Amino acid sequence: MSPYEFVTVRGRGYRPDQVETFMVELGEERDAAWERAARLTVLAKEMEAEAERMRAVVEELPPQTYEALGDRAHRIFRLVVEEAKTLREGARRELTEGVVEAAARADGECDAVRERADALRADSEERARQLLLAASAEADDIRISARLEVKEQRGEALSALREVRQRTTGMLAELAKEHAERWAEEEREEAARAAAVDAHNAERIARAEAALAEAERALEEARESARRSEEEAEERAREVLAEAKAREEQIARETERVLREHGETWDDVQAHMDHMRDSLVTLTGRAAAE
Questions:
Q1: CA atoms within 13 Å, Cβ hemisphere of 7
Q2: d(C-alpha 195, C-alpha 188), whole Å
Q3: Across residues 174-200, what is the average pLDDT?
Q4: Which CA distances in Å does 73 have to 32, 99, 144, 147, 151?
Q5: What is the pLDDT of residues 239-275, one digit of tens each?
Q6: Nearest residue to 95 (alpha-carbon basis) of 129, 131, 112, 119
């Protein structure tokens, strides 16, 4: 009896060891698919929690109240913004390269791709956090310097502040859009991979069921053949016993006949011998008298 309750018989169909090996491989693929789905679910929840945490951090930041900025402060702040943009684009390129590489090797290296993506995401978030801290510190310095010139350059500072807020809002909106597009693409790719795995599993299950049905038919044929063989053997045994019994009765009758014939012959011989003895006695006695 196999571990999957396939009865081993002699007949047509698939070999039991092939069917068992196939079932083991199919179970392993099913378990791997469930494990991959569970990991992706956990990763999605972690990313959502991290996004919520980052939004809370941003909301808790003190409001930027640049009352007045001079030319020097404006140039410094612009350099900071440009540097932030450069770092963000670099992080975006690195993230894009990581995603492309992960997509190319997703079938065989799901765990490694996830680790690299996590590391890249953590590095990007750390850079963004450091950039935010640096920008905040630089903004504080600019704000202190700007307060010294607030009376002379109040209007210019207000304009610069509005520009900074507009650019910051645009950057945040663009970043949110990119994250949404990336998540949508990853969900589509994962759905396509899951559909391919389901189709492959369905095909293998169908083949396994066909093999099982063939094995069951072979088992039924073997059982029917064994039943017919047993019935034929019993019928032949009855015939042999009947023939042996008839032969025994025939031999007994033949033996009785031979014994009876031999007995009659012996009686004839005995009578003839008695006659010859009497004749000799008679002749012998007559000769002595003469």
A1: 12
A2: 10
A3: 80
A4: 57, 38, 10, 11, 15
A5: 877 777 777 777 767 767 766 666 666 666 666 666 6
A6: 119
Residue 11 zone, left/alpha/beta (φ > 0; ψ -120 to 50; rest): left
pTM: 0.25
How far from chain centre, in Å, is Cα 260? Answer: 87
| H helix count then E strand count, the chain | 4, 0
Q: What is the DSSP letter of 63?
A: P
Cα–Cα distance for residue pair 69/149, rounded to 1 Å? 8
DSSP codes of every residue in 136-179: HHHHHHHHHHHHHTTTTSHHHHHHHHHHHHHHHHHHHHHHHHHH
Q: Where are the domains of the chain?
A: 16-225
Q: Using alpha carbons only, how large is the chain's radius of gyration in Å?
A: 54
